[in-house]
Specification:
The protein is α+β, with helices and mostly antiparallel strands. The chain has four helices and eleven strands. The strands form three sheets. Strands 1, 3, 4, 5, 6, 8 and 9 form a seven-stranded antiparallel beta sheet that branches. Strands 2-7 form a two-stranded antiparallel ribbon. The longest helix has 23 residues, at 82-104.
Length: 187
């Protein structure tokens, strides 16, 4: 995985967390990890299609999620209901959107899927993209882990890889004049 893929998520994570929650988020490290793991943490998954394909997974404890959702909603939250989960998904969406903007500066066009949230139940999560890079952060609200699993698409949207024919591909493989859409999320 290229360094710019990972770096594109580090600053947005810290900036969005700080702006939305008014709490500092500190980067504590990154490492390559297996693409299958079991978690008891709330996990928000956002798929990425376009010039890059894969998933980004945001993990936090239920306690951290309650604090995050409460701050975003401006009230004390004691249960992860639909509104609280929506707030958690929106935070992940904002971070990923900012990262996609950063990736566009490297000429990678990325389309995002809506967030999918997995509640903590010792779920086993598998992503076909390998390896994952696990970026770890800490704040007074608790830990945030961001698993980045992205690969470059075989066909990029720019004319540099497709020739003068042009066209726009979003998350699929071009077959003749047809696009075969492939799902980006496999759990």
């Amino acid at each position: 995985m290229k360094e710019e893929y990972v770096n594109a998520f580090l600053t947005p994570a810290m900036l969005v967390w700080g702006m939305e929650l008014d709490v500092a988020l500190d980067f504590t490290g990154a490492e390559a990890v297996a693409n299958e793991y079991t978690t008891d943490r709330l996990t928000t998954v956002i798929g990425i299609n376009g010039d890059l394909k894969g998933n980004v997974l945001y993990e936090m404890s239920e306690e951290t999620a309650l604090l995050v959702a409460g701050r975003m909603m401006g009230e004390n939250i004691t249960k992860l209901d639909e509104m609280a989960m929506s707030a958690i998904g929106e935070l992940a969406n904002m971070i990923t959107g900012n990262a996609a903007t950063e990736l566009s500066s490297y000429d990678y066009r990325c389309d995002l899927t809506p967030p999918v949230i997995i509640k903590p139940t010792n779920a086993t999560v598998f992503t076909p993209e390998s390896p994952q890079i696990l970026a770890s952060f800490s704040s007074e609200f608790g830990q945030l882990s961001v698993r980045i699993c992205l690969t470059e698409s075989l066909v990029r949207s720019g004319n540099d890889r497709r020739g003068a024919g042009g066209g726009h591909i979003s998350g699929g493989i071009l077959a003749g004049d047809h696009e075969l859409l492939l799902p980006s999320l496999k759990l």
